[in-house]
């Protein structure tokens, strides 16, 4: 949690609205393994991190509401009873969407002012959007005593993303951001929303992120396309979700699906199995196995699910050349953002340097390296 960030939004709020706000910190997330499995009712393995969104919120007595995104130097005034989605890609959709979903649950809220700023790099695949949605729903719940449970809040955040932002996301990001536990990752069953927490102590190894600093357009529509492909294959298989299917099941319908969709479904089935194996590997402290599952995950995301890009593939190839990296893969929805690397602590700095240099040579742009801490989920800051 960033103290400076919180202080900044607080002071800004005091200056702008002349009132003391509630302060909320809502983190972004990493994901060890289990990509594109969440909307297939499968398993994921995320953790909340120390980067996120700081929000300051308080009731407004002016008859209107205001939201201010400090990062974007953008202010929006709105009336609650006139809310509708803004143009695609506008940040206020995250705020409006949450508000609209709360209203859909017949919960009454009044006018409010909110100011936020984040330190999750945009497009890094670390879920700044879920962090923002969670900060808004959490703040409104506190402010207006809505009595929402955390489970309800994450479903509201997810629906906001579906209906206002236009991405039919799964539940991983909102869950990890809301329920994160310091120093732990969450092995989450996205069907039951039950998770087991794993204290992550890789001893001589650590996780390191490398951000490609690219975000290719069309990623939202490509995401939604993949989700519908998975759903139509589930239907063909007569199962509720791909989580319920096995590889032999899939083989039975090989003639009924296109080869590309076949590979996508196969990836999901295999990735789900890998995520279950990864939990066992961590229990057994078998980092070699964990690393190899992570590499396999990337291969599947790139070759079968087709959500990687040349920058991500390049960074994973760099990792593969270094014997101190046990595993590396793209993280999040894809088409840009970060790779996550499981690397020997003593080799991390050197690898960061060589990979950065190679990346610059190849693409004539910089990548960024992050060392992260696993943190508590969305919470009120006293
Ligand atoms: C995005 C979505 C998540 C999940 C990942 C891929 O982050 O928001 O729900 O599907 O992509 O694993």
What would you note in describing this structure?
There is one protein chain. This protein is 43% helix and 23% strand. The mean pLDDT is 96. The protein has two domains: 3-199 and 375-381, Ribosomal Protein S5, domain 2 (2-Layer Sandwich), CATH 3.30.230; 205-371, Alpha-Beta Plaits, CATH 3.30.70.890. Helix 2 packs across helix 4 and helix 10 (310-320) packs across helix 11 (345-363). The protein has a six-stranded mixed β-sheet, sandwiched between helices. Strands 10-11-9-12 form a four-stranded antiparallel β-sheet. A hairpin with a 5-residue loop joins strand 10 and strand 11 (336-344). By secondary structure, it is of the alpha+beta class. The chain has eleven helices and 13 strands. The protein binds alpha-D-galactopyranose. The site of alpha-D-galactopyranose has 11 residues, from helix 5.
CATH class of the largest domain: Alpha Beta
Main sheet: strand order = 5-4-6-3-1-13
User: How many whole angstroms does the radius of gyration measure?
Assistant: 21 Å
Provide the list of bound ligands, each named once: alpha-D-galactopyranose
Strand content: 15-25%
Taken in chain order, the helices and strands follow as HEEEEEHEHHHEEEHHHHHEEHEE
Taking the alpha carbons of the first and last residues, their distance comes to 13 Å
- Number of helices, where a helix is a run of at least 4 consecutive DSSP H or I residues: 11
Query: Biggest β-sheet: count, sense, barrel?
Result: 6 strands, mixed
Count of DSSP strands: 13
Task: Report the CATH architecture of the largest domain.
Answer: 2-Layer Sandwich
Contiguous uncertain segments of 5+ residues: none
Structural class: alpha+beta
Q: What would the CATH topology of the largest domain be?
A: Ribosomal Protein S5, domain 2
- Residue-averaged pLDDT, rounded? 96
Helix content: 40-55%
Overall geometry:
globular
- Domain count: 2
């Amino acid at each position: 949690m960033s103290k400076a960030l919180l202080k900044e939004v607080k002071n800004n709020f005091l200056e702008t609205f002349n009132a003391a706000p509630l302060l909320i910190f809502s983190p972004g997330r990493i994901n060890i393994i289990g990509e594109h499995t969440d909307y297939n009712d499968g398993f994921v393995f995320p953790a909340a991190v120390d980067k996120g969104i700081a929000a300051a919120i308080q009731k407004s007595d002016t008859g209107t509401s205001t939201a201010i995104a400090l990062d974007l130097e953008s202010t929006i005034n709105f009336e609650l009873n006139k809310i509708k989605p803004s143009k695609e890609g506008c940040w206020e959709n995250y705020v409006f969407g949450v508000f609209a979903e709360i209203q859909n649950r017949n919960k009454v809220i009044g006018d409010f002012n909110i100011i936020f700023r984040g330190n999750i790099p945009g497009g890094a695949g670390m879920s700044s959007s879920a962090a923002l949605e969670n900060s808004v729903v959490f703040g409104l719940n506190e402010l207006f005593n809505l009595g929402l449970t955390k489970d309800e809040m994450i479903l509201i955040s997810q629906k906001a993303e579906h209906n206002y932002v236009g991405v039919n996301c799964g539940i991983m990001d909102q869950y990890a951001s809301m329920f994160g536990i310091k120093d732990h990752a969450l092995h989450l069953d996205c069907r039951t929303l039950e998770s087991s927490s794993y204290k992550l102590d890789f001893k001589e190894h650590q996780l390191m992120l490398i951000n490609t600093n690219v975000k290719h357009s069309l990623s939202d529509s490509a995401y939604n396309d993949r989700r519908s492909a998975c759903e139509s294959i589930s239907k063909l298989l007569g199962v509720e979700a791909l989580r319920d299917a096995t590889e032999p099941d899939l083989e039975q319908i090989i003639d009924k699906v296109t080869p590309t969709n076949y590979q996508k479904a196969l990836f999901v089935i295999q990735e789900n199995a890998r995520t279950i194996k990864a939990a066992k590997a961590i229990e057994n402290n078998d980092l070699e196995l964990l690393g190899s599952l992570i590499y396999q995950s990337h291969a599947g995301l790139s070759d079968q699910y087709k959500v990687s890009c040349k920058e991500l593939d390049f960074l994973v190839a760099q990792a593969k050349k270094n014997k101190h990296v046990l595993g590396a893969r793209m993280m999040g929805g894809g088409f840009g953002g970060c790779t996550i690397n499981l690397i020997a602590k003593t080799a991390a700095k050197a690898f960061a340097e060589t990979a950065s240099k190679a990346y610059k040579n190849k693409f004539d742009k910089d990548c960024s390296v992050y060392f992260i801490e696993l943190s508590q989920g969305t919470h009120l800051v006293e």
